[in-house]
């Protein structure tokens, strides 16, 4: 896997680290301004309620869109440490009755076995900033994170969380994790079911033909009305949104990082 330059897409870029898992092997010999920018932009370990969009806006749209449906798959591909599917699980558990959230089936996968091991462990590294961020959407975040202990080790992790926490098992058990790659999972989309498909902040690491195959396959497979959620970082891929529009998606809320299958 190869990351494109973080601020340009010129072929003669100087900054061309190779990643097996994003920041995980981010290890520059000499730290430049660009590296610092990259470090802020490119994080292995994700983060709950990552600020690619307003989660209340997204969730409200999802609830409205799938009102009356009995099953909706929330599928998080390239989920890293599981923060992203955890954000959905927390939001549903904290804010909606079981009768309601029972229809949302949350699955998550990542190509990196270390990340999946961490995601499955039921512990998560969280900083004070993470708690602040979770608190924007969840009234009492500490209710769901207990037993502070030393951080879970992640190879070459550049984040500086001082503690890991045990995630409330009622919330964590809402998510099914497995090791898998994006393309394999996209090919398995059931065209008869609805999806909120999340492939976020990973496209710039992928080769062009892989990106094409992922986008074309998901466009072909996703049932009309399904939602595709991406991240701000994915907009670094040239013409990312235009490609989605050409493949039959529209943007229900302008400027938010999600599109819907027509
Ligand atoms: C920057 S993290 C993004 C995490 C999360 N989606 C987010 O937005 O916070 C990128 C993740 O993509 C995973 N990844 C990279 N290529 C992949 C592929 N082809 N299939 C599945 N996961 C992949 C990496 O292992 C890493 O955990």
- Within CATH, the superfamily of the domain at 55-122 and 168-261 carries the name Vaccinia Virus protein VP39
* Rg on CA atoms, Å: 18 Å
Indicate the percent of residues in helices.
25-40%
Strand coverage percent: 15-25%
General form:
globular
Keywords, please?
three-stranded antiparallel sheet, about 260 residues, 10 helices, Rossmann fold, binds S-adenosylmethionine, alpha/beta, seven-stranded mixed sheet, globular
Describe what you observe in this structure.
- This protein is α/β, with parallel strands linked by helices.
- The chain has a domain at about 55-120 and about 170-260: Rossmann fold (3-Layer(aba) Sandwich).
- Helices cover about 30% and strands about 20% of the residues.
- The protein is built from ten helices and ten strands.
- It has a seven-stranded mixed sheet with strand order 6-2-1-7-8-10-9. Strands 3-5-4 form a three-stranded antiparallel sheet.
- A hairpin with a 7-residue loop joins strand 9 (about 250) and strand 10.
- The protein is globular.
- The two termini are about 30 Å apart.
- The model is unreliable at about 1-40 (pLDDT under 50).
- Bound molecules: S-adenosylmethionine.
- S-adenosylmethionine binds near residues 78, 80 and 200.
């Amino acid at each position: 896997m190869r990351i494109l330059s973080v601020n340009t897409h010129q072929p003669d870029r100087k900054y061309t680290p190779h990643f097996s898992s994003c920041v995980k092997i981010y290890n520059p010999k000499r730290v430049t301004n660009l590296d610092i920018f990259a470090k802020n932009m490119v994080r292995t370990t994700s983060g709950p309620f990552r600020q690619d969009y307003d989660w209340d806006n997204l969730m409200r749209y999802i609830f409205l869109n799938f009102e009356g449906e009995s099953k909706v798959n929330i599928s998080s591909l390239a989920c890293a440490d599981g923060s992203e599917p955890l954000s959905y699980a927390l939001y549903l558990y904290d804010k909606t009755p079981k009768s309601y959230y029972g229809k949302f089936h949350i699955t998550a996968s990542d190509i990196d076995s270390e990340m999946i091991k961490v995601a499955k462990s039921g512990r998560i590294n969280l900083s004070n900033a993470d708690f602040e961020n979770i608190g924007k959407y969840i009234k009492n975040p500490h209710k769901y994170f207990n037993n502070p202990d030393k951080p879970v080790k992640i190879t070459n992790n550049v984040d500086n969380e001082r503690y890991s926490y045990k995630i409330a098992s009622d919330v964590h058990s809402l998510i099914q994790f497995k090791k898998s790659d994006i393309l394999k999972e996209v090919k398995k989309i059931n065209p008869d079911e609805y999806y909120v498909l999340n492939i976020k902040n990973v496209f710039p690491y992928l080769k062009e033909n892989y990106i094409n195959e992922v986008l074309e396959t998901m466009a072909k497979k996703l049932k009309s009305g399904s939602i595709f959620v991406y991240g701000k970082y994915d907009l670094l891929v040239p013409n990312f949104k235009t490609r989605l529009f050409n493949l039959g998606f529209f943007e229900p809320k302008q400027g938010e990082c999600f599109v819907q299958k027509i």
